[in-house]
UniProtKB/TrEMBL annotation:
<feature type="region of interest" description="Disordered">
    <location>
        <begin position="281"/>
        <end position="318"/>
    </location>
</feature>
<dbReference type="InterPro" id="IPR025713">
    <property type="entry name" value="MotB-like_N_dom"/>
</dbReference>
<dbReference type="InterPro" id="IPR050330">
    <property type="entry name" value="Bact_OuterMem_StrucFunc"/>
</dbReference>
<feature type="domain" description="OmpA-like">
    <location>
        <begin position="155"/>
        <end position="274"/>
    </location>
</feature>
<keyword id="KW-0812">Transmembrane</keyword>
<dbReference type="InterPro" id="IPR036737">
    <property type="entry name" value="OmpA-like_sf"/>
</dbReference>
<feature type="compositionally biased region" description="Low complexity">
    <location>
        <begin position="281"/>
        <end position="290"/>
    </location>
</feature>
<protein>
    <submittedName>
        <fullName>Flagellar motor protein MotB</fullName>
    </submittedName>
</protein>
<keyword id="KW-1133">Transmembrane helix</keyword>
<keyword id="KW-0969">Cilium</keyword>
<dbReference type="Pfam" id="PF00691">
    <property type="entry name" value="OmpA"/>
</dbReference>
<comment type="similarity">
    <text>Belongs to the MotB family.</text>
</comment>
<dbReference type="InterPro" id="IPR006665">
    <property type="entry name" value="OmpA-like"/>
</dbReference>
<dbReference type="Pfam" id="PF13677">
    <property type="entry name" value="MotB_plug"/>
</dbReference>
<keyword id="KW-1003">Cell membrane</keyword>
<keyword id="KW-0472">Membrane</keyword>
<keyword id="KW-0282">Flagellum</keyword>
Length: 336
């Protein structure tokens, strides 16, 4: 039997609950903020002094110009900078700030500190010069003729003759090319510090064979001056040269052998401030004696006097030496 009854399909549409909205959260947050501000104001009012209440009131009455009877500070603690004392409500405010006791710095302490820092600066310069000699192939060939050492008067650089490598032409002040290269290479490094220098020339004990009015004294002075000209040509400031002098054979490097070629040398002394004052005729501090001709060194050519602390790398040394160019460590004379 055929069933012609229609088939009915019911589709149930499921819908979620309607959105209730979040406006109440914003209202509640505003209410909580207002209550916090209210209780904060109540706490401040209960803990503030009458003076502070008047200051706060004056501020809200005239925020820009403020009240004439009040301090420009909401809470005047009586410190510095002080407003007009006659207008402040704090009776303890003084017209002048209280000066704290500062212990005066002794001039001798300043001098001692300056000398310590200057010694450190010369130590750095010594290491930088030694690194320059080691790094430059041309200079390294003549390492055995260059001596660096720290003395009481400063950093002493001695460049001396060898049997087969004289610095000057025989009996004259004409520089040999290699010696001129050494001076030109050192001029830039030495000029990195503000200390002045002294240049001195020395000969051996062999009498000069030439004119009767020209001897080892004149020859040593002329050679020292020739070295000065080479340094200036290499960029060293001429105004930084404190003295150029010739010693002839009066200060031999090798006293046991007066004819030793090492006695023919050029000394470049990077002066300390104390030695510079003595040379320039200023009164030395503490009544010390002016620097004398440095005694012959016991070190051998090519050696270097020890420097305290671990040796620094060349790049680190150059970075530390750069601070001297800007004058930060100029070590001017301490004012008495």
């Amino acid at each position: 039997m055929d069933n012609n009854q229609p088939i009915i399909i019911k589709r149930v549409k499921k819908t979620a609950g309607g959105h209730h909205g979040g406006a109440w959260k914003i209202a509640f947050a505003d209410f909580a903020t207002a209550m916090m501000a209210f209780f904060l104001v109540m706490w401040l009012m209960s803990s503030a002094t009458p003076e502070q209440k008047k200051l706060i009131s004056g501020y809200f009455q005239d925020p820009i110009g403020f009240s004439e009877s009040a301090s420009p500070y909401v809470i005047d603690l009586g410190g510095t900078p002080t407003p007009s004392p006659e207008k402040t409500l704090n009776p303890e405010v003084q017209e002048h700030p209280v000066e704290t006791d500062v212990a005066p710095i002794d001039a001798a302490q300043v001098e001692t500190l300056s000398e310590q820092l200057e010694r450190e600066r010369l130590d750095l310069l010594l290491q930088e010069l030694q690194n320059k000699v080691d790094e430059n192939p041309e200079l390294k060939r003549f390492k055995d003729q260059i001596l660096f050492e720290i003395t009481k008067d400063g950093l002493r650089i001695q460049i001396m003759d060898a049997d087969n490598r004289p610095m000057f032409a025989l009996g004259s002040a004409q520089l040999q090319p290699y010696f001129e290269d050494i001076l030109l290479a050192m001029a830039e490094t030495i000029s990195a510090v503000p200390n002045k220098i002294s240049v001195s020339g020395h000969t051996d004990a062999k009498p000069f064979a030439g004119r009767g009015d020209f001897g080892n004294w004149e020859l040593s002075a002329n050679r020292a001056n020739a070295a000065r000209r080479a340094l200036v040509y290499g960029g060293y400031p001429d105004a930084q040269i404190a003295r150029v002098v010739g010693y002839a054979s009066s200060a031999l490097f090798d006293r046991q052998n007066p004819l030793n070629p090492v006695n023919r040398r050029i000394d470049i002394l990077v002066l300390t401030k104390r030695a510079q004052r003595s040379i320039e005729g200023e009164q030395p501090a503490g009544g010390e004696q002016p620097p004398q001709t440095p005694p012959p060194s016991s070190a051998t050519p090519g050696s270097v006097s020890p420097v305290e602390g671990e040796p620094m790398q060349p790049r680190e040394l150059r970075e530390k030496l750069n601070i001297f160019e800007s004058g930060v460590l100029g070590f001017d004379e301490p004012e008495g």
